[in-house]
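Researcher: Excuse me, tokens okay?
***
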Amino acid sequence: MQEIIENIIYNTSYFSLYGLTFIYFLFLYFTVAPMFLVICKQLNKRGLLHKIIDKKVKRKQLNFEIKHSLQSIFVFGFSVLPIIYLIRIDKITLLPNTFFNVVLAVVVLTLWNEVHFFIVHRIMHLPFFMKRVHFVHHQSRIPTVWSVYSFHWFEALLLSTVPLIIMLFVPFSIVGVFLYPLASVLLNYAGHCNYRFGDGYGNSWRLFGTHHNEHHSKGRANYGFASNALDKFYNCYIKRH
């Protein structure tokens, strides 16, 4: 396994690396998304999840989301290239792919993503970027699993730099870096699926899934990714009543 990984890192062409990354994100979007939605619907029937906005999403919105998500996936494909280049010239150090290192990489990258996303998202809500860039994502007034990658290409480019920035300073397992987008998109689906855990009242974990949904419906505040910690710290959190 280690030999296969090293061969991919050091011997695979950049064109092939782009193709593999593009296919990976296509898989996360077109395979994991419908599976996630089916699970949500089944849990909803059992009373474990509750619909947040009980309105049917128009086909026009879904087509818009898929179109722009494909555009974002095209951009995401390039995200692996600078990472591999910097690994090849010894500017990025990799840790052994032990179980501990893999789990640690996924956890640290997920936590770093909360900070990275919050910063980018706040910037996107400045009038200049909101009008010209971030308006694309806000076309999904009722978020769906298909809206997770529905961005303007420039926003997709900024969001794709999560691993690259931190890997310049912190070594990771490359397998952990590979698994991070899966963990990220699952949290992303939870925030966009339009379902909440439990009845959604109060301040407990049962509210999970409502924070980003509130942001889509109101168009302000709740800038965090999966957590509302930074929103509360910077006093830009809308509590659901």
User: Anything to note?
Assistant: The two ends are 51 Å apart (CA to CA). The first strand starts at residue 49 and ends at 51. The mean pLDDT is 90. Residues 2-233 form one domain.
